Amino acid sequence: MVSAGHWKDYAMDMLADQAIFSIYRKASEMPLYQVVKRPALRNKQGQFSVVAPGGLILKRGHDLQAVLKVFDKKRFIST
């Protein structure tokens, strides 16, 4: 989506207990979405999740490819 121009910027953060891929509409704003990997949840709800602004978890699971399918819907493209 970044290379297609729908989203303008992204960032990757590596913390002690999680890795976060943040997606931005503009570099100076709050992230539109975050893809979070928490290995501690591997045996529970799934280590991958897509989080919307405000902390709403849109999708959670054990497989990253399945979790990212939430972005296949056109409603998530911000222009």
Structure description:
The protein has one domain. Helices cover 5% and strands 33% of the residues. It has one helix at 64-67; strands at 9-14, 19-24, 33-37, 48-51, 57-61. A hairpin with a 5-residue loop joins strand 4 (48-51) and strand 5 (57-61). The mean pLDDT is 82.
Helix tally?
1
Count of the separate structural domains: 1
The secondary-structure class comes to mainly beta
Principal-axis shape equals globular
Strand content: 25-35%
SSE topology string: EEEEEH
Strand order of the largest sheet: 1-2-3-4-5
User: How many β-strands, per DSSP?
Assistant: 5
Q: How many strands, which pairing sense, and closed or not: the largest β-sheet? A: 5 strands, antiparallel
Query: Which radius of gyration do the C-alpha atoms yield?
Result: 13 Å
Q: Span from first to last CA?
A: 11 Å
Mean pLDDT rating: 82
Which spans of ≥5 residues are poorly predicted at pLDDT below 50? none
Q: Tell me the helix content.
A: under 10%
